[in-house]
Amino acid sequence: MTIDFDKVWERRNTSSIKWDKYAKDVIPLWVADMDFAVAPAITDALAERIKHPVFGYTAASDHLHDLLIKHLRDLYSWEVEKEWIVWCPGVVAALAACVRAYATQGSGILTNPPIYHHFFQVHNPDAHRLIRTPLIRQGRRWTYDQALIRKSVDTDTSMFMLCSPHNPTGTLFDATELKEICATASDNGAIVVSDEIHCGLVLSEDRQHVPMALAAPEYSDSIVTLMSASKTFNLAGLNCSYAIISNPDLRQKYIDASAEVIPFIGTLAYTATEAAFEHAEPWRQGLLQYLRDNYAYLQDEFSAIDGMELQDLDATYLAWIDASALGLNDTAGFFEQHGVGFSAGEQFEQAHHLRLNFACPRSTLEQALQRIKSAVATLD
Ligand SMILES: Cc1ncc(COP(=O)(O)O)c(C=O)c1O
92 CB under 6 A from ligand 1? Predict the structure, then answer.
């Protein structure tokens, strides 16, 4: 399948959260959606569905379940049963439902900054303690501080919220790393909530995403996995994701906690997700190649920019940059003044860092790089 990922789609004035954030000319490289058109099979399926002009409450079809089960088998060799799957409109909502379901009054919830900012926000600060065990840097790769995690988890820890592959560092954890934290959490009675929304975006050609439930099968009774087609197939505005919970007791708690607060999924969201799993694998392969090339371009460019160190990345389209050597107080604000909209590291609790979304046509990246270089040159 040939897809023109170079094509520039004008997204200004489309109520895009990413593009319409700025009143002035700023190239937005922040929020995690892509500037690419979805696979044609998805727009075809949506066009077909809207020929039927009734949009009542909708459930996931048997066909969608079959497709999802096949998708997980094909990509990860993970055998998932239909009853384990619970659909929900968003992964953040699912994280919040997990807190309601599993975090008892006064208990601790463990997470690892820098991390996607909602991980800091989905708990109730009056009822729960957020325990931060920061990732550690090994060269330009970020990983878990297993010793600190072991020290920080106790039997009052009810939940471990982790992100794998990791936003914002782009780390793809291996089975050993995952199993070790899962063991520490589970041995202390904590539920492991594994946000794997970026699992379809592994850029390394010789590595694969390992679902937590496969990395640590002996602990599968205490694992909740959250996934979605939304990042991989660029469907974030349609709102469809799913939890996989093999333990029936945990699953029922999750369903009970979701009732009344989490709405049904939109009809068209199911249609798009179904088409993605059924037809869009060639599109995903094309996307991954385009993203690899964009990342290689960034590596070249940033190697020549003093003060901005691109971190290693195995997955996601979100590059993590250590800009501490620039010595700025408000690093993201500085670049915004110069026409480039990064996500600020502070959002992930890591000052002097920037997150750069490179899921855009190369020409957009090239323009942004020109501006970044000009901005840094003003600091000389
Ligand atoms: C790790 C992670 N979880 C969840 C989300 C958002 O998921 P949703 O839009 O399904 O709530 C994002 C979006 O960037 C993310 O990076």
Answer: yes
pTM of the model: 0.97
Domain stops at, among 227, 255, 278:
278
pLDDT tens column, 58-90: 999 999 999 999 999 999 999 999 999 999 999
**Is residue 18 included in any domain, yes or no?**
no
Is 2 a domain residue?
A: no
Looking at the fold, whether 302 and 249 belong to one and the same domain comes out as no
User: Ligand 1 pocket check: which of 33, 86, 92, 357 to mutate, most ligand atoms within 8 Å of Cβ?
Assistant: 92
DSSP-assigned states of every residue in 112-137: -SS--THHHHSS-TTT-EEEE---EE
62, 76: one domain:
yes
- Residue 116, judged by CB atoms within 10 A of its CB (0-12, 13-18, 19+), counts as buried
Q: How far is the CA of 117 from the centre of ligand 1 (A)?
A: 10
pLDDT value for 179: 97
Distance 346 CA to ligand 1 centre (A): 17
- Predicted confidence band at 3 (pLDDT cuts at 50, 70, 90)? confident
Q: Which atom of ligand 1 is nearest to the CA of 90?
A: 10
Report yes or no on 47 lying in a domain.
no
| Domain containing residue 155 | 54-278
Judged by DSSP in three states, 318 sits in strand
**Any domain includes 144:** yes
